[in-house]
Amino acid sequence: MNWEAVGAIGEILGAVAILVTLVYLANQIKYARLTAMDGNRANRVVGIRDLNGRLVADADARKAWNKAIDPAFRELHDDISESLGLSFDEASIVILQGWNWMYTHWAQYHSMKSPEDDAELKLICKVWYGADPMKTLLRHPAFRACFEPAFVSWLDGVVAAD
Questions:
Q1: pLDDT tens-digit profile of 71-88?
Q2: Are 49 and 103 in contact (CB under 8 A)?
Q3: Cα–Cα distance for residue pair 50/54, rounded to 1 Å
Q4: For residues 40 and 71, what is the distance between their CA atoms, to the nearest angstrom?
Q5: DSSP 3-state assignment of 134?
Q6: How far is Cα 91 from Cα 95, in angstroms, rounded to an integer?
Q7: pTM
Q8: How far apart, in Å, are the Cα atoms of 77 and each of 94, 141, 153, 157?
Q9: Taking CA 117 as the corner, what is the angle to CA 111 and CA 122, rounded to the nearest 5 degrees?
Q10: Which whole-number Å values give the CA distances from 116 to 34, 37, 94, 123, 136, in the listed order?
Q11: Could you tell me if 119 and 161 are in contact, meaning their C-beta atoms sit under 8 angstroms apart?
Q12: Residue ranges per domain, the chain?
């Protein structure tokens, strides 16, 4: 074997090494992006939970919020009040907490998870959304309209599954 053949083999090995490195980096970038998306969803849930928590804790703020709500949300409050035997204000608290749970489960639905995590999430959601007050909230069109249709359909399937 002469030096030209050794050089050619070295160039081929170098090209293969560069290709393997590029594939590895592309894979790392993909997972870094997915991790960042998971973090963004989690931060969004924390923000929503914080805002809703403030409304739940402050009766005056909740009263002002309830005065200004859209007619569809007023109907949601009225329906929840009637079907669960709650006052309008109590229904408001239940709805705000329901949003917290929905957004939490939405973020978990979209996150990177193992098959075991997915099975656990389905079990939690089946129990949680299969009983009141979440069952009633999940059935209401105004409440459903606040969430991604694919997630709501997934929840419907989980709750209906045997």
A1: 888 899 899 999 999 999
A2: yes
A3: 6
A4: 31
A5: helix
A6: 6
A7: 0.73
A8: 9, 12, 23, 25
A9: 95
A10: 19, 21, 30, 11, 28
A11: no
A12: 43-160
